[in-house]
Design brief:
Layout lengths: L19 H5 L6 E2 L11 H9 L13 H15 L8 E4 L3 H14 L5 E5 L5 H8 L3 E5 L14 H6 E7 L11 H11 L3 E4 L22 E6 L12 E5 L1 H14 L5 H11 L3 H23 L12 E5 L5 H12 L1 E2 L1 E2 L10 E5 L4 H12 L2
Parallel strand pairs: 1-10, 3-4, 3-5, 5-6, 6-7
Antiparallel strand pairs: 2-8, 7-8, 9-12, 11-12
Helix pairs in contact: 2-9, 3-9, 4-5, 10-12
Length: about 375
């Protein structure tokens, strides 16, 4: 008996296309707060490095040029108090392609396991990566603070687990998990833990966190410059941690031809060496979240500031996220994401990405305050 062909589901954000005309009727057009696409400029020296590296002529090493990996190691030490050898760091083309491809790579390594564990409210690519890799995608319950509840994982799923994803600060809810507990859980159960830390620079509750602060054995931290340095279009990410896992993944990816373009690596080096622009960006996002929260409060919706990240995760009136999404498009000209994009458990919430400039955020908030 042959299996059924895989039919890709609709891409989540494409489902918002029918609402865009409602928002676009407002003066200034639609204010798209549905996807976390940065709008602010990267530092001029980063753009200069991208344009003048001369690295476009040759094939860059898949793992990343030595200077990039050294810059990443220096950044880990400076910003996260993590000591790690550049030999245990590798580059990725952003991080989404790594997230989506990881289950397939890990199943090749451990063919007797087939399960990807991930938070039940989270970035959709964790579950989709499992599906694309022919694996079981098993959501893990989160608690009332949106933090992953490792104690809820069934023993049968642990025995089949290829890997566990954790995400701190979390997308969409802005939660900050106990990464030490996650690392210990993974070692105890012999399940590799992959920690998506792409929003680490935008941690509001306590210090910046990394799973690597709790040792390197059995864990890999995943990072990106897309949000930190407004370089989403340049596609520079990296992963670091357990030497055996990093070596395995870098070798597989080398065979597949994954390479961060040379000019992008040069831009990454420049961006990682400068923290001042990150502090400026932190101030922007915090200011915008506070203003948008005021606007939502004006229509009776409480949107608490997150522990990290730059998304407001807000309950929808009467639990109807799609109705509230349509309301915001029609009345405020804003396009936001219904919570079901991030898992069925989030279906009664919306996510608001405060990634447009101050004027656009002000337009939306002011419209809400006049309703």
């Amino acid at each position: 008996m042959t299996g059924q062909p895989f039919v890709p589901p609709p891409y989540p954000y494409d489902r918002l296309d029918t609402l865009k005309p409602l928002a676009d009727r407002h003066v200034g057009g639609v204010v798209d707060l549905s996807i976390g696409t940065p709008c602010d400029p990267p530092p001029s020296e980063v753009v200069e490095a991208l344009a003048s590296s001369g690295a476009e002529r040759g094939y860059p090493p898949s793992i990343g040029i030595p200077r990039l990996r050294e810059a990443i190691a220096e950044w880990f030490d400076r910003r996260l108090a993590v000591e790690i050898s550049p030999a245990h760091i590798a580059a990725a083309i952003g991080t989404k392609e790594l997230v989506a491809g990881l289950p397939n790579y890990m199943r090749l390594r451990t063919p007797d396991r087939d399960t990807v564990l991930y938070p039940e409210i989270s970035y959709p690519s964790y579950a989709m990566g499992a599906t694309l890799g022919g694996c079981r995608a098993v959501p893990v319950r989160v608690d009332e603070r949106w933090r992953i509840d490792l104690s809820s994982i069934d023993r049968s799923d642990i025995d089949r687990a290829l890997l566990l994803w954790v995400n701190t600060p979390g997308n969409p809810a802005g939660n900050v998990d106990d990464l030490g507990a996650a690392a210990e859980w993974g070692r105890r159960h012999r399940v590799p833990v992959f920690s998506d830390e792409c929003y680490a620079e935008f941690t509001w509750s306590g210090p910046r966190r990394s799973v690597l602060q709790h040792g390197h054995e059995g864990v890999v931290a995943v990072h990106s410059l897309s949000k930190r340095s407004n370089l989403a279009g340049v596609r520079v990410g990296f992963y670091a941690g357990d030497p055996d896992l990093v070596l395995y993944l870098s070798e597989v990816r080398k065979h597949a031809g994954f390479m961060v373009p040379g000019p992008a690596q040069a831009a990454g080096i420049a961006a990682l060496g400068d923290d001042a622009h990150v502090e400026v960006q932190r101030e922007r996002y915090l200011r915008r979240m506070k203003r948008m929260a005021e606007g939502l409060a004006a229509v009776g919706v409480s949107a608490p500031l997150p522990e990290g990240g730059f998304y407001l995760w807000a309950p929808a009136p009467e639990g109807d996220a799609w109705a509230f999404t349509e309301f915001l498009a029609r009345e405020a000209g804003a396009l936001v994401s219904p919570g079901e994009f991030y898992g069925a458990a989030g279906a009664d919430h919306i996510r608001v990405a405060v990634v447009r400039d101050d004027d656009a955020i002000e337009r939306v908030a002011s419209r809400l305050e006049t309703i």
